[in-house]
Amino acid sequence: MSNSDNQQIVLNPSQAEYEIKKSQFIGAIMPCNSEREALQQLRTLATQHPNANHLAFAWRIRQDDGFINERCNDAGEPSGTAGRPILAPLEGNNIINAIVGVIRYFGGVKLGTGGLARAYGTAAKLAIESATLSAWIEMSELKLDIEYSQLQLLEYQLKQCQGQIIDQQFSDRVIVTISLPTSENEQIKEQFTGF
Question: Which of 18, 68, 87, 156 could connect to 72 by a Cys-Cys bridge, CB 3.0–4.6 Å?
Answer without folding.
Answer: 87
